[in-house]
Design a protein that fits this description.
With 384 residues, this protein is an alpha/beta fold. The chain is built from 13 helices and 17 strands. The strands form three sheets. An eight-stranded mixed sheet has the order 3-2-1-4-5-6-16-17, sandwiched between helices. It has a seven-stranded mixed sheet with strand order 11-10-9-12-13-15-14. Strands 7-8 form a two-stranded antiparallel sheet. The structure holds nicotinamide-adenine-dinucleotide. Nicotinamide-adenine-dinucleotide binds next to α5 and α6.
Length: 384
């Protein structure tokens, strides 16, 4: 019997990327639903998922990327395709991966020109129904947790308060800036390690969530910047100034500052200007989760970790989810499985209904064109 769909997974090629789009558990379920799953040999290595395990789950292993791309009805990836992968995409196939089309419309155009349909995982709408497919949330959860461990490891101090015969050690003071998905997980993790945690966000609605995790919400008397879909809006210049003045006091007394603030479609807001970091104590740490989007700290060097002249370790490591590749892949994989279930009919055939809210939000290219109006708009502006 012919498989319903051939789902193909190549090895990730971005340096340092250890995740795999589909783990063995998901392979097994998809094969059980009469799909064929083709995986490039070694694709799971970085996530402790061996070829044998994938084969035992029902996958067919192929030795080359070319064979995997050529087999695909649907190609599942974590990272957007790079220049060396684009020519391998099979015309008529569907690519499901992170793609950041709003900031990289050129890639969307190149995918359209290959006659490939693109579903961008970073464009899944933030609705209750789509939550199970939301890789931004699943991966941000991991980044938030990891950031706190990086801070704890880089700090020459303990996190918890200890009362011992050798004296009393005060708890570490951690400040979390941005209390979205990553920030809330950072708060929870730092609390579990015994730190005293403060957190701040421009969306005042998160105050209650912050407090329910046992942290103190830093109140700053500026406009509420809650935008649509749970995201933040950019602040006015006056509000930014007021925010910086108020935050400076909290930053200066913190042992670790974890920054997670993002505004969709913009460079990450700078919350820690250089002079604020210069007023931090020697031995303190900044972990900038927003490093990939330009960073929340002016002194962040994306992809690097270094010590400033005044002894502050600034960590701007990229792709924190990949550092916990086993669970990051498991969650990514589960998100993809839920998406596939959403876009296939009862016979397992792919049905991309452009009037469906979820499909509409993430369908970027189809039939050789960019069909997502907002992406088409940025692509047009880029050409003009
Ligand atoms: P995000 O990654 O875009 O931003 C992280 C946080 O930074 C946000 O909380 C934002 O308010 C904050 N921020 C932006 N500018 C700031 C500034 N100048 N100072 C301080 N903080 C600033 O957002 P996210 O974490 O992915 O999601 C934000 C919210 O969206 C979540 O808390 C949740 O309520 C909602 N959400 C809903 C769904 C869903 O319903 N499916 C899924 C994910 C998120």
């Amino acid at each position: 019997m012919l498989p319903r769909m051939i789902i193909a997974i190549p090895r990730e090629t971005v340096p340092g990327e250890k995740r795999i789009a589909l783990v063995a558990e998901s392979v097994k379920r998809l094969v059980g639903r009469k799909h064929e799953v083709v995986i490039e040999s070694g694709a799971g290595q970085g996530a402790e998922c061996s070829d044998e395990e994938l084969r035992a789950a029902g996958a067919r292993l192929e030795p080359t990327a070319a064979a995997v791309y050529a087999a695909a009805d649907v190609l599942l990836k974590v990272q957007p395709p790079g220049p060396e992968e684009l020519p391998l995409l099979k015309p008529g196939s569907v690519l499901v991966s992170l793609a950041y089309p709003m900031s990289n419309p050129k890639l969307a155009r190149a995918i359209a020109e290959r006659q490939v349909t693109l579903l961008a995982m970073d464009m899944v709408p933030r609705t209750t129904l789509a939550q199970m497919m939301d890789v931004l949330s699943s991966q941000a959860t991991i980044a938030g947790y990891r950031a706190v461990l990086l801070a704890a490891e880089a700090m020459p101090k303990l996190f918890p308060m200890l009362m011992t015969a050798a004296g009393t050690i005060p708890p570490a003071k951690v400040l979390v800036l941005g209390a979205g998905v990553a920030g809330l997980q950072a708060i929870a993790t730092a609390r579990r390690l015994g730190a005293v945690v403060e957190a701040y966000d421009v969306r005042k609605v998160v105050k209650e969530q912050v407090e329910s995790l046992g942290a103190r919400f830093v109140n700053i008397d500026i406009e509420d910047a809650a935008g649509s879909g749970g995201y933040a809006k950019e602040l006015s210049e006056e509000a930014k100034k007021k925010q910086a003045e108020a935050l400076a006091v909290h930053v200066a007394k913190s042992d670790a500052v974890i920054t997670t603030a993002l505004v969709p479609g913009r460079r990450a807001p700078v919350l820690l200007p250089a002079d604020m970091v210069r007023r931090m104590k020697s031995g303190s740490v900044v972990v900038d989760i927003a490093a990939e989007q330009g960073g929340n700290c002016e002194l962040t060097r994306p992809g690097e970790r270094y010590r400033t002249e005044n002894g502050v370790t600034v960590i701007g490591e990229k792709n924190l989810p990949s550092q916990l590749s086993v669970h990051a892949s498991a969650m990514f994989s589960r998100n993809l499985e839920k998406l596939l279930a959403h876009v296939t009919d009862k016979d397992g055939a792919l049905k991309l209904d452009a009037s469906d809210e979820i499909v509409k939000g993430m369908l970027i290219t189809r039939g050789g064109d960019i069909v997502h109006p907002a992406v088409a708009d940025v692509a047009m502006k880029e050409v003009a």
